Amino acid sequence: QVAAANALSDIYAMGGTPLTAMNIAAFPTDTLPLHVLTEILRGGQDKVHEAGAHIIGGHTVVDDEVKYGLAVTGRIDPRAMLANSGAKPGDRLVITKPIGNGILATAIKQGTLDSRATAEVIDLMRALNDAASRAALDVGARCATDVTGFGLLGHASHIARASGVTLQFQISAVPVLTGAP
Fold it and tell me: What pTM, to 2 d.p., does this model score?
């Protein structure tokens, strides 16, 4: 469900609504039982349905490592589309989820994060961004991005370059997950 929520976040970050999704999976059939793949696909389907969209197929390959994602299509009003190039001087940056899940996910994989913090991180990563997307559109936001693989500063630099602006952070105002450095 985490991978599915992440894939759906791109549509929401642009102010759109997901309609369909296709599974993309890699799975080590020689080292893991197929019921594990079934549960991965079921979790993705549950998250896609939560978003009001439908799975329309997909592709699975045998690989040494488990990988899962979605190719998502959606609907968006081009006049209200949010892109990372829409920031203007004086705009305020709103962060809708605390940062730090990348480093804490690594700690989970290494077995060094306690169960309470693990549950908090997983719940956060499973949460859809639909409410934040609707709120951004309701207040007339012009710019948005998801904060995933490049982290907050990486995505901020994309906004700054694409929009021709400089971003300034008040570090004490940036929400950070408990346990993240």
Answer: 0.82
